[in-house]
Amino acid sequence: MKISASILAADQNNIINNLNDKKDLFDYVHIDIGDNIFCPTYGISKYNVYKLVNETTYKLDIHLMIDEYPVLLENLFKENNNIVRASHHVESNSINEFISIMKKQDNIDTGFGILSSSDLNILRPFLESKNVATDYILLLCVNPGFSYQDPVISPSQRVLEFKNLYPNYQGQIMVDGGVSNKMLNELNDLGVNVSVQGGAIFG
């Protein structure tokens, strides 16, 4: 199982040094981009996003928590960079725009996120569509937008619910929210491919 380090939990004025200090603890850098509408935060600043793209070689994992699709990401996708995966929430108004843009991205894995409060059945149209490439599902287990939260739902429970509902799903599973180090073995045993950790790395 891979680990993606959520930089919402890092010192926003010292992100790169924080990452360099913890580089042996993660495989990806998880970047939350919010709009203060879909979720009550703007996530990581544009300045820090561009800094991570232009000044580091870390593999970047973009997580969109927005209603309107950001020009920021379109601009990033036009460049050769270190973004290797990007997810957007199926509850968002701009999910179809995300799908359209991701169809053009050969080197970036496409993920669909779902809020902890949402019925997992809303993923079905995306998982069963022949026109949508689903590389991974992101199961959010906390309220979106802030670090150092306790899970709203147990990550293991959410994974089990997903696997019971979609037993034939062949893509990757990513969990995000309240994942402590003591949960990692169980999540790995359940077949989780990527766990997002914030406080467990930077706290």
What does this structure look like?
Helix 3 links the parallel strand 3 and strand 4 (83-89). With 203 residues, the chain is of the alpha/beta class. It has helices at residues 15-21, 46-55, 71-77, 95-102, 124-128, 155-165, 184-189, 199-202, and strands at residues 2-6, 28-34, 60-65, 83-89, 109-114, 136-140, 172-176, 194-197. The protein is globular and about 40 Å long. An eight-stranded parallel barrel has the order 1-2-3-4-5-6-7-8. It has a single domain (2-202), classed as Aldolase class I (TIM Barrel).
Reported by name, the CATH topology is: TIM Barrel
Shape: globular
Q: Describe the sheet with the most strands.
A: 8 strands, parallel, barrel
Q: Extract low-pLDDT stretches.
A: none
CATH superfamily: Aldolase class I
From the N-terminal CA to the C-terminal CA, the straight-line distance is 21 Å
Number of strands: 8
Q: How many domains, in number, for the residues?
A: 1
At CATH level 2, the architecture is: Alpha-Beta Barrel
Return Rg in Å. 16 Å
Helix content: 25-40%
Count up the helices.
8
Just give the CATH class: Alpha Beta
The share of residues in extended strands comes to 15-25%
Mean pLDDT: 91
Structure classification: alpha/beta
